[in-house]
Amino acid sequence: MSALAEGAAHTLPPLSVVAASPAPLLRVEGLTVAPRAAPAAPIVADVSLSVPAGGSLGIVGESGSGKSLTCLAVMGLLPRPLIQTGGTVRLGERTLTGLSARELVAERGRRVAIVFQDPVASLNPVRTVGRGLTGLLRLHRGLLGTPARDVAARLLEGVGLSRRHLPAYPHELSGGQSQRVMMAGALAGEPSLLIADEPTTALDVTTQLQLLDLIERLRAETGTALLIVSHDFGVIARSAEQVAVMYAGRVVETAPVRALLRRPAHPYTLGLLASVPPEHGRAHRAPLPPATTVARAGAPGCAFAPRCERAGEICRHARPPLARLREGFVACHHPVPA
Amino acid sequence: MTRFILTKIVRALLTIWLVVTITFVVLRLTGDPMHSLLPVETTPPEVIETYRVLWGLDRSLVEQYVSFWKGLFSGTLGRSFADGRDAVGIIVERVPKTLVLMGWTLLATLLMGIPLGALAAMHRGRALDRAVMAVAVAGHSLPEYLIGILLIWFFAVELRWLPSSGYGTWAHLVLPVATLTGYFGAQFARFTRSAVLEILGQPHVLAAHAQGWPGRAVMLRDVLPNAAIPLVTLFGFSLGKLIAGSIIVEWIFAWPGIGRLLITSVTHRDLAIVQALVLVFAGAMVLANLLIDISYVLLNPKLRVIRR
Question: Any CB–CB contact under 8 A between B123 and chain A?
């Protein structure tokens, strides 16, 4: 099976194998996020990820698994009650962790851009699409007047809208159109990494597909790397080459998308996949049992153990490290056999 | 938009008519003005009767009302009972003095209230926020006359820096404007703070930060323009309160504007002047509300579509 050959690890493996991977564009190492009020109780713990230049990584997991917080931490935009207590975020040659607020501002939009889940609310309701885009072009590329308007129009055309949308206010746009405008804004600074945090979740199904196609096309045209977050395996499978599964603030499995879909190693991944309606003749598996307690990243043992039918005694006491298995890495004492 | 403004203007005129009519009737039903103008016991009845005829008070209410409107359309509002001068002339002479007071108050209120409120919101829960809000709550809770008297006591009596009353120089302006700003600035600071806090929590503010806008630009481009929409509502309410407040402040500081004129005219039952002043106040309120309605539409693009 060619799945083995696809396994050029884009997600950060343990240090022993780092040397083998190509120099990544985004490298997150040991990222830990905790409330300021309780630094010892992390919400995101020891997350390591990497995205190669021009490559793509999907993060998948249930709500509350720390996907979005990981993205915000990469942008340096954690909400005030939270703080990064450990780890480093590196973008290209530059270490973002520890930069001053002003230095971080200079990176945002230019080197790394992000689009969020709720596109309609993400647009300033009192500013037209055109003024929003020309503002960004002035900020990032120093463009003014007619050249700025022309580039703004071209950006809109690039995302499947047109010059006619320049004078439109956000409330005159549909959800899909709003997300296209957000994408145009994200690309205004020609970033080398685009983060898409649940970019299609708020949209209806047909619009979702169009947007995923658009993301794919834009990546092909601009060579931008992509970090896409979703709770939906369908979205990840469509837009990412590599996937990281997060549970309770930790990465529990990472592998090339196709390998992971074919042979999930972590029982949680298996359960997540079983929650997706079967397709391509895949056998229907039992979905995940509901969580009865709040899973915490700081708890001893494996956070998934209470919901896991494979869990043994060791799972409750010792947290499994992320270890190589088949084409990827899995943090599990009793991984699902191939 | 034209239709919208026309409807508003018709309603505004209706409001003015109602206010003027009600005042007219109430003023004439609450006692004979002769009793406060002339010492009734010692004045010969013929004299009182002569003045009654002179001012038209001998005629029926309806007749007086009709002649009032006739006068209004020919540009006169009667004569002052006290000194016989033309009411319009007296008011025109005093309106600018009140406008100076209100204008500086509004300027000081906006320039202090909005930045302080925004600053407090940005430092939510920290020392600066608490300090600003403590002062604002005090300013908003104390009545104007108390603030005014405290300021007079401190700056005029104790320090002797500023005159306690009167009109004419910049120094005379400071205490009355400070008194009014103490109240309105506090109100604006509190309201701006909550409006800004609400906008700060919205996704488009996070998006603006993510797009690489520096904090100050986010404040000026995203937060304040959106927070301005509820602030305009407060501004509209405040104009009414400002008129009321300036009446009190003009009285305390002997400021020769229309507020002080209103109090003296009411005390002397100088009907023509009171009537004319009510018309001016009603007109000012109605005009202010009309401008507020129009600025809503200008500030909030969502309303523009509905009105189209």
Answer: no
